[in-house]
Design goal:
Number of strands: 2
Distance between the termini: 76 Å
Oligomer: single chain
Shape: elongated
Radius of gyration: 43 Å
Strand content: under 5%
Length: about 625
């Protein structure tokens, strides 16, 4: 940290001769210790200030000329020496009065006097250096003057006094603050900010640029503020005072004061460091984080417990905008948001935010378990509750996906995994009861009446589903759309499973069946697209690709179509290829082997670059392995 700093001398500065000036000599002071002179300067400030008849630096130069002329003689007049010493002391007092009035007298005239006083100090420091190597018995008794040292001592005392006064003064501006600690910190911080802005706007130009007076003052205010904060925090603080001090130390002081738009880039903040020593800072941060962890954990568990009590009591969730809704997600997001916002303004190390976000992770895990237990139970309100919780899940998923800064990648993944599991649990509540009905209605696939088009299997299924979807009208639209996309995949999954269990068909049946598949794919895609499932159009593409494989008879063309399908859906395995080929009639064992080998050889090497969803991995075809072995098709 930069200390009080030292005004740099200006060696080699040329002195010009001036006409003889009036020197105040009505004070009969002798050379006094520095502390006494400083005290005298402060007392002098209370008295009526004499009218300045000339610039202080001109008086200083005149005194230096008199000094040099006097000590250039072989014999020194004691009377003249005494008078000259009194004149130096008078000038000295006027300079200290001027410096001490830095923040109280800011007219253009006052600033001009201050600028003149600083030049005088530099002149006297230069003169001290000129006498430095002379024999001691030839040097004036008042040399060296040491005005730089006195100047810096005075600045330090001024800063200490101004912060002390600010801490103790009554100010309506800090009345809303709830404690004495907060008021003191705020008043001192505001005084430091106001004074530094005064320095940069007005005082800085009174000093030579190389003096860097702004950083001298910044160092003094920083050091003094730091000492007073150490005193305030030496004993354990109330948690609200603790968080307020951390807010000032880690956020407001470095960002809003040191990096104020009018100070930004001018203060050497890296040299200042923290307002608190690291051990003290760590102690306060640990106190704050421990308390905040407990608070967040309590708030989240209380919110979940209240929600769960509503479920178990048989209550139906409230309806908002025609769909079931629960305030749980909003409550959770508000708790986490407010905690993280306060954390960001209170703790310097943002990685420590994970001590709070882990509470969100634990909450979501408990939330998932509670919903799974509810679905397992025989509760009359389960469907309405699940609809409300699916809306919550979507809100929480959107929120967590956006939290890339506060959550680590692992935490984000685990949170989204819990929510995904909760969402799947909710979806199963609606899709599982439809599973058997869907399977039964698709059972006529690849029968003669389906192949010749006389039995509209998919039409019947879609009519049934349309009736069932009425029950989802009070589900949040975005959740309903997502659920229907899952239902669409489940329907197509049952469709493909049924197809893969079909035994070989004649060429005519293959061609006719392929045509029925294309028609079915179009009907299903139209039905679910109208329900909002536009992002699942890949199911239509996949079904049409399978139909093309069934329609084709040329082995080379079939092979090419399989390769394209496997590149689009990398989870299309060898057994799946064999199951599809088992429908074909007329392919030799060599053709089948060649097709399977070509599919394996032409797969995309980097499967991770393929963005297609997993589908075929959900189609189990273990039965085909026995058939492969029996046919001697194992490659």
């Amino acid at each position: 940290m930069r200390g009080a700093g030292v005004l740099e001398e200006n060696p080699g500065g040329a002195m010009r001769r001036l006409p003889r000036l009036k020197i105040w000599n009505n004070h009969k002071q002798k050379n006094q210790p520095e502390e006494a002179l400083l005290e005298g300067a402060l007392q002098k400030e209370q008295q009526e200030e004499p009218q300045q008849e000339e610039q202080l630096e001109e008086i200083s130069r005149r005194l230096i000329l008199r000094e040099e002329e006097l000590f250039s003689r072989d014999v020194h007049s004691e009377v003249e020496k005494d008078q000259l010493q009194r004149d130096f002391e008078e000038l000295r007092i006027q300079i200290w009065i001027t410096i001490h009035s830095t923040f109280t007298s800011l007219t253009s005239r006052d600033l001009e006097v201050l600028r003149s006083a600083i030049l005088s100090i530099q002149q006297q420091e230069e003169q001290d250096l000129r006498w430095k190597d002379c024999p001691k018995d030839q040097v004036p008794v008042w040399r060296p003057q040491g005005w730089l040292r006195t100047h810096n001592q005075l600045l330090q005392k001024m800063v200490e006094s101004r912060l002390s006064q600010a801490a103790e003064e009554n100010s309506t501006e800090t009345d809303p603050l709830s404690s004495a600690v907060k008021k003191q910190v705020c008043r001192m911080g505001k005084r430091a900010k106001d004074d530094l802005l005064t320095v940069v706007k007005m005082v800085k130009d009174c000093y030579p640029a190389k003096v860097d007076i702004l950083n001298i003052y910044a160092g003094l205010y920083h050091q003094t503020f730091s000492v007073r904060l150490a005193g305030l925090t030496s004993s354990e603080l109330e948690i609200k005072d603790c968080s307020y001090v951390l807010f000032w130390v880690n956020h407001y002081y470095p960002r809003e004061i040191l990096n104020h738009k009018e100070l930004d880039g001018l203060i050497k903040t890296a040299c200042l460091g923290s307002l608190l020593l690291q051990d003290d800072l760590n102690r306060l941060e640990e106190q704050y984080l421990t308390h905040r962890e407990e608070q967040v954990k309590l708030w989240l568990s209380t919110a979940l417990k209240k929600e769960q009590e509503g479920w178990l009591s048989g209550n139906t969730p409230e309806v908002m905008d025609s769909y079931y809704f629960s305030p749980l997600a909003i409550d959770v997001i508000q708790v986490i948001n407010s905690s993280l916002t306060e954390f960001n303004h209170t703790i310097h190390d943002q990685n420590k935010a994970q001590r709070l976000t882990v509470q969100l992770e634990n909450f979501l895990c408990s939330y998932k378990k509670c919903l799974e237990e509810l679905v397992k139970g025989n509760h009359s309100n389960v469907r309405s509750v699940v609809k409300a919780q699916l809306a919550c899940e979507q809100q929480l998923s959107d929120y967590i996906t956006r939290q890339t800064g506060s959550l680590s990648e692992e935490q984000q993944r685990r949170c989204l995994d819990s929510l995904s599991a909760m969402r799947d649990c909710g979806y199963r509540c609606f899709t599982c009861p439809l599973h058997d009905q869907t399977k039964a209605r698709l059972s006529p696939l690849w029968t003669s009446v389906w192949v010749d088009g006389s039995l509209p299997v998919v039409d019947s299924l879609l009519d049934f589903l349309n009736q069932q979807l009425v029950d989802l009208s009070d589900l949040k639209p975005a959740c309903r759309q997502s659920l229907l996309c899952v239902l669409y995949q489940n329907v197509v999954l049952q469709y493909v499973k049924k197809m893969m269990k079909t035994r070989s068909k004649s060429r005519e049946q293959q061609v006719a069946g392929a045509q029925r598949m294309i028609e079915d794919a179009q009907k299903m895609d139209k039905f679910f697209t109208e329900e909002g499932c536009s992002e699942t159009s890949w199911l239509h593409v996949m079904l049409c690709g399978l139909a093309e494989i069934i329609r084709l008879q040329d082995p080379a063309s079939i092979q090419l179509e399989f390769v394209n399908l496997a590149r689009t859906f990398p989870d299309l395995s060898g057994p799946h290829v064999s199951a599809l080929l088992s429908i074909k009639n007329g392919l030799s064992s060599a053709d089948v082997r060649s097709i399977r080998l070509s599919v394996e050889e032409n797969r995309l090497l980097d499967v991770s670059t393929n963005q297609s969803p997993q589908f075929f991995s959900r189609v189990k075809v273990k039965w085909i392995n026995n058939k492969i072995n029996q046919m001697g098709l194992k490659s």
